[in-house]
Amino acid sequence: MSTHKSSSWCVAMKCNNKVTEKRHFFMFPKEYDRWMQWIRASKRFDLKVMGPEYAHRNYRLCHLHFEEKWYKIGKSRASLHPDAIPTIFFGTNDILVTTAPEEIVNDCQRLSTIVKDCQQEETNRYD
User: Fold this and answer.
1) Per-residue pLDDT tens digits for 40-81
2) Per the structure, how many domains does the chain have?
3) Residue 44 falls inside a structural domain
4) How far from chain centre, in Å, is Cα 61?
5) The pTM is what?
6) Residue 47 forms part of a structural domain
7) What is the C-alpha separation between 124 and 27, in angstroms, rounded?
8) Domain assignment of residue 79, yes or no
9) Could you give the CA distance from residue 43 to residue 76 in angstroms, rounded to a whole number?
10) Would I find Chaperone among this entry's keywords (predicted)?
11) CA atoms within 13 A on the CB side of 121
């Protein structure tokens, strides 16, 4: 996963980083479960209605929301490890908050199960 030149800001709440501030921006993942992990970690639940494809094309998080072990900065661009999950955010009182990846994975697995159950119920309803 690499940076994309079209994004001009980070969508994390309370993050005002822009491309002009020499930040590296990473696209939201296309894969549903990983996308949900990013949504949950960033607390940007408003992006859920747009879906992973749309979020991937239009929304970015800057490198400051990832631990350094998850990305590499090259001469012209940065690359993000495919399993990286953003864990560094500012809370409502401007206190640095980190989200434990295990909690994110567990929440996303529960949510994924709920969504699948709802989809199955919807399918059964029209059979």
Assistant:
1) 999 999 999 999 999 999 999 999 999 999 999 888 788 999
2) 1
3) yes
4) 7
5) 0.63
6) yes
7) 36
8) yes
9) 30
10) no
11) 6
